[in-house]
Amino acid sequence: MPRLELRPYQEECVQAHFTWFANNPEGNPLFVVPTGAGKSLIIAEFVRRSLEAWPSCRFVVPTHVKELVQQNYDEFVGHWGGGLFCPVGIYSAGLGRRDARERVVFANIQSIYGRAEELGPFDLVLVDEAHLVPKTGEGRYRTYFEALRAINPRVRVCGYTATHYRLDGGYLHKGDDAMFTAVAYEVRLEDLVPEYLCPLVAKAPKEGQVDLAGVRTEAGEFKADDLEAASLPCTEAAVDEVVELGQHRKAWLFFATTIRHAELVVSALADHGIEARAVFGDTPADERASVVRAFRDGDLRAIVNVGVLTTGFNAPRCDLIAMLRATQSASLYVQICGRGMRKFPGKTDCMLLDFGGNVQRHGPINKVRPRPRGEGGGVLARLCPECDMLVALGALVCPCGHVFTRPCPLCDEQVPLRTRTCPHCGYESVREHEPTASDLAPWDPGANEPTVCRVSSWNLRRHEKPDRPPSVRVDYYCGMKTYSEWVCPEHGGYAARKAGGWWTDHGGAAPLPSTVDDLLARAKEEIRQPAAIEVVLDGEYDRVSRSLYRREATT
Fold first, then answer.
1. Which residues are CB-neighbours of 55 under 8 A, at least 6 positions away?
2. pTM of structure
3. For the purposes of burial, counting CB atoms within 10 Å of the CB of 297, is it exposed (0-12), middle (13-18) or buried (19 or more)?
4. Residue 208 lies in a domain
5. Are residues 239 and 335 in the same domain?
6. In terms of domains, do 74 and 210 share one?
7. What is the tens place of the pLDDT at every residue in 32-43?
């Protein structure tokens, strides 16, 4: 079998491993790779090149479900083809194998976390689905890592995940006790759709939505008993709508709240003459494998699951996802959406029917940011009044042709979203992408849109940092939020030129201030507070991108 050819982003990701380790003698990197983008192949190629360079290295690839263990093993062996020259094995009770001393071992964490001595030392641990590694405290992964370090203090850990954040709202590489150090490489969904992955499309359900009014929160997630009680009464209406909207779809994947809920979904589908099977965590392995195989092969149109088909489930035929449950977990939401984004012959997109308000709760899957536990969020999606399609907040025009409007951030007059210049006050936006909606709020192909924030007041003060020249910290107070930027006239080079531009943009006169003290002394007389600022998401943080001032209308 010929070796698989890597896609450009996969090649970049593999190279990023070696670059990161060359520049970081300590620490554990994260690699963020969306569902369907080929994590298994990236891992296989990284290990292959590493063993060619350092044949004595040992690798262990742990994950939480046997299906992923088998999938990663098969990808590795298939990629090497006839050129496989290293011993490779599996350590998994569920798969009936305990290969402990091979050069590369694919393993269930449940099977190995207490057997570090038996498996012996490893140089690298490659964790698939790394978002399941707890940020702090104990757990099987951390127990195993600590035991490995006792055997080999120089062991390093690489993490691979589509969602590098957890239910508690934290990033995996943030915090004093975080297992991972930094994101070494991130593959963006924007770079994969539509060439490598399918887009998502949807209609907002009219019936069957889960009413969360009485549902309590427990440990950062909706309480299971409450969620079941809220979901059961609307199940039949939800299934009716799925049948109506999905009549031309071939493979339906349902996410239910509990076993009782899933069984009711199966019964409601049967009333429509549609065969469906349900799988749960305690479904016997042979039965679950048989159901999944029938779904993949097209012999079963609908499969209903409770918490088992979010990771390690690969069914490219899936072209409809029905979320009959609500979740506060951004990670779970993204993982569920990813189940339908793999490409398949004749498949152009995947329909997502969300009965739990998840799209509006979390926003587009390529723009999701975790929130600290307990922090609420506003609606992150827009409903078209003409066709009921859910589209991203940044959408300018719905695919049906409806033109969205909003109040001008400076004068409050209604203007079309696609209008760059307000005809009433002259405010000019900087929108650059095409004036059409994304297919659906779970997917937003648009540029990183700025948010306009009105400035009620501001403050400039001297900012000191060890071993660096001083700078000016500028705080913009915008309602309940404060945004900051740093102006650096004494840093030289690009930073000093940027500081000069900032001074001029805010109305300052020549000569440009060359020191922090000079800038602060002249600020009160020479520069003016902006009426608003534009803020964009830059990586994980908000960045002030532009200051806005009221001016006379252009008409």
1. 86
2. 0.69
3. exposed
4. yes
5. yes
6. no
7. 999 889 999 999
